Amino acid sequence: MDRYLVFGHPVRHSKSPFIHTLFARQTQQELEYGLAEPAVDEFAQALRTFFDQGGKGCNVTVPFKEQAFTLVDRLSPRAKRAGAVNTIKLTDDGVLLGDNTDGAGLVADLKSHGVTLADSRILLLGAGGAARGALAPLLAELPSELVIANRTHTKAQQLAAEFHDLGPVTAQIYEQLAGPFDLVINSTSASLQGELPPLAPALIHTDIAIYDMMYGASDTAFICWAKQHGARQTMDGLGMLVEQAAEAFTVWRGIRPGTKQVLRELKRNLGVI
Length: 273
Ligand code: ATR
What we know:
By secondary structure, this protein is of the alpha/beta class. It has ten helices and twelve strands. It has helices at about 15-25, 45-50, 65-70, 75-80, 100-110, 130-140, 155-165, 220-230, 240-255, 260-270, and strands at about 1-5, 30-35, 55-60, 75, 85-90, 95-100, 120-125, 145-150, 170, 185, 210, 235. The longest helix is centred in the last third of the chain and has 16 residues, at about 240-255. It starts with a strand and ends with a helix.
């Protein structure tokens, strides 16, 4: 049977095996999908061994995405832009192809929630790997403006300069942000510590869409805060997780699985519904 897995550390709580097993059942693909948690300095060897032993493809998650970028034979254009690889496919001619499906997953999830990206003013919070992966797919939707704000402003400036050729992207300091924005995407890891990015409450209005790439069994700190200040449409990163997985599955198998039912089952599994 064709073998796939996700590399991460820690990876025990990954939902990828659950999601890909449901995709495989739904599309009647024969495959198995497991977990691998190599020591941080043993990822390269573990990756090589997996493919030497007949593995067909893998996902890569924290903290290995940047290293995976350096280990593959060939990069997709979107992985090149993201500077990170979350999906690897062994092609028929034996080439390890590195791809990045995170940004496409974000955009697919935003669209599935009915969020309009074309001609919109988007505020992206954070300038780490998650923000970098999102930029090219977001700019491809032709927003009127995309503003990056980050605690360390120089990182936001660097990102804006790097992606400037793809669209109207600028960097602004949190305290100097001028609304209104149509969509705020939180790519920071602040919610992991129950913290908030230093965003002025005045930027939140009833018609704004709020997206937190983090997720949990209950609302993230950022979503709670946005709701308190009047946001009516809030979304967490669970849908992005399922959509990036669907994109990876499509890269591997050439067949696109449906995501709605899988997302519902994942929510049930997490105790969200
Ligand atoms: P990832 O790869 O998930 O994006 P990362 O590269 O560690 O992770 O980036 C984390 C992002 O969250 C950074 O933009 C970080 O801001 P700094 O560049 O200033 O470190 C941001 N971040 C983390 N905690 C934050 C907090 N409490 N408030 C605001 N931003 C925060």
